[in-house]
Amino acid sequence: MKAFFEGIQYLFVDILFAPLDFLRSLELTSWFAANTINWIFMIICASAMVYWIKQLKIFEDAGTEKQDTTAHSFLK
Asked: How many Cβ atoms are within 10 Å of 72's Cβ, its own excluded?
């Protein structure tokens, strides 16, 4: 049983976390390069939010947005 848990430890520590260890060592030389993944995720989230707000505006201007407050019985 001990070998099983050591195998799980080896998988996570030595294989799956290797990219994160690389980013941690990269941070000592270049903060911007180490945080490139974070910048990419922030750009993706910002562009998705802009797209979502544009779609909300399109449906609001077209009048297809249904804002009936009696849709649920607890809102009456």
From this structure: 8
Overall pTM surpassing 0.85 (yes/no): no
Q: Which residue carries 């941070």 as its tokens?
A: 27
In single-letter form, the type of residue at position 53 comes to: I
Q: How many whole angstroms separate alpha carbon 30 and alpha carbon 16? A: 23
In Å, what is the CA distance from 6 to each residue of 29, 42, 56? Answer: 33, 36, 51
Count the Cβ atoms, other than its own, within 10 Å of residue 23.
Answer: 15
pLDDT tens for 17-75 read 998 899 889 888 998 888 998 999 999 999 999 999 999 999 888 878 776 666 666 66
